[in-house]
Fold:
Amino acid sequence: MNRRKFLTIAGATSLGLGIAACATPPLPAVQQQSTTTGAQATAAATATPDAAQAAAEMDVLHEQGVNDFVKNLEQNNKTFWSQLMPYTMDGDTKVFEITMTPVKWEVQPGTTVDGFAYNGIIPGPEIRVTEGDKLRFNVKNDLPQSSSIHWHGIHLPNKMDGVPYVTQPPIRPGESFTYEFPAKNPGSHMYHSHHNAADQVTRGLLGAFIIEPKDKSAEPAHDSDYAMILNDYNVGLTINGKSFPATGAIMAKKGEKVRVRFMNEGLQIHPMHLHGYYMDVTHKDGYPLPAPYKADVLNIAPGERYDVIIQANEPGVWAFHCHILTHAESPHGMFGMVTALIVNET
Structure:
C-alpha cells in the first residue's frame, strides 16, 4: 500500500490522521493553570527555541513511524498473520512435526532479539484442526535447555497435558517426545512451553491452536479470521511477534464481518482498543458466551482468549492498539502493540 492510497482510505489530509493513539485528557493540575494571569499564560505559551525544536523533532519521529508502517504494509502482511502448520496423514491421524530451536528474531527493522521458536518462527505456526480429528505431535528439542508443550485450554488425557514432573518428564536438549490426543473441544486455544515458562514463552515458544467445530451452524458469520497473539517480555511489546511499525494490518471491504481471536501469551494485561467501532464479543477462552456483548476496549489477561466480530461498515484507517499507552506510544512515536483495521469502500 502506498502513501496516496493510505491517505485516500483514511479520508485524511495529513498522514496519520485516524491512526494516532487516543490522547489523554489534561490532568486537573494542568486545568487549574487556566486561572493564572494573562502575563503568566503568555510566558508559558512562548516556547523557547530548544523546546520548539524538540517538538518539531517529535512530530517528525511520529510521522516517520507511520510512513514506515505504510511503506512496508503489503510485505509485512504476508508474514504477520498466522501461517498454518502443515501435517501428514498416518491412517486417520493428522501428524504434525514441531522442532524447538533458538533464533535471532527481528522484532522491527534494526531490532533483533534472542528468541526461542517453534519451527523457526515467532509465534509458532497456527495449528488449525476440526473437532473429532485424531492428532499426533512429534516434538524435537534443539534448545540449550529442557522444555515441553502445554496445550492451553484443550481437553485431553492428563498424560498429554505437557507439565514436566507432573504429567511427563521434561524434553531435554536433543530429545523428542510425542503427544497424541483427539481434538475434543472447539474454540480458540494456544500451545506453549510449560517449563521455565516465564522465560521460554515470552522468548517465543507460543502459538495459536484453533479447533473448528464439526457443526458450524452456531458459529458467528464472518468473512475473514485473524489470530492476534499478544506478548510483552523478552521479545518485547509485540503483536504476533512484531512491534510497530513492523506490524501488519487487518484488511476488510466495507460490509464485511471480521473475526479476531485475541490470545494473551504475555505477563501483563492488555486492554485492546479499536477506534471507531464496537467489537461484538462472542467467545471467552474458546467457549461461546451465552450473552455476547459489545466493547471498544477489551481487557485480556495472561492466558485469556477472546473472539470478537467486527462489522466493517465505516471506511478508513482505524487504529487498533493496547490502551496501556506506554505499550503503544512515546515521544518517539507509536511503537509496540499497535496495528490497524483498514476498511476499503470496495
About this structure: The domain at 88-212 is CATH 2.60.40.420 (Immunoglobulin-like). The chain has two domains: 1-23+52-80+220-346, 88-212.
